[in-house]
Design a protein that fits this description.
about 180 residues, 6 helices, elongated, mainly alpha, Ferritin
Length: about 180
């Protein structure tokens, strides 16, 4: 059973590497004339894809820039879950809607790239872990309340408990490392 988890984990991580290289680009959610999408749904697709892409890329940085086992463990968990969430978002998107890929928030990632060790850990936990997940929870809740596309609303409802769990994990990690929130 453990080998099965390792193989699945390897497949997911490999997918993450293929889906989200560190080269960050911004690409807005788009629609075709045949499939218009309400603004709330467009905003959600953009926010959710950017959040996951940023989480994945920041987690990759954590594997090399952190020396803390708790931070690396959190990052590994984020990489796996956000890769899965990206796939779920793509599957929920209506035909003709492009889900942006490689659209990490460079204003978050840029400052992290030059940091190592404890300085990296503090910035990563605060900016990506706590603040990033707080913003993601708000985006998913907004889609649930205001979204017009049934599949995207369901995807947001299905993913919200995971995002909320990540937010709690980040808060717990911040508390454990003595960071104020």
């Amino acid at each position: 059973m453990k080998l099965k988890h390792v193989i699945i984990g390897t497949i997911v991580v490999t997918s993450a590497l293929a889906i989200a290289p560190l080269a960050a680009q911004t690409e807005a959610a788009s629609t075709t004339a045949a499939n218009p999408l309400a603004q709330a749904d467009k905003d959600f697709v953009q926010a959710a894809s950017m959040s996951s892409s940023t989480e994945i890329d920041a987690a990759k940085l954590a594997t090399s820039n952190s020396e803390d086992k708790d931070v690396k463990s959190f990052a590994h968990h984020m990489m796996l879950d956000h890769t899965k969430l990206t796939i779920q978002l793509k599957m929920a998107a209506p035909h003709g809607v492009t889900v942006p890929k490689d659209n990490s928030d460079t204003t978050v990632l840029g400052p992290l790239k030059g940091l190592k060790g404890k300085a990296f850990d503090q910035a990563y936990i605060s900016k990506v872990g706590v603040e990033g997940h707080k913003e993601a929870v708000a985006a998913f809740e907004k889609e649930i309340a205001e979204g017009q596309n049934a599949k995207l609303k369901k995807a947001a409802q299905d993913a919200l408990p995971t995002i909320q769990k990540h937010y709690q994990m980040a808060q717990d990690l911040a508390a454990k490392k003595g960071l104020s929130q």
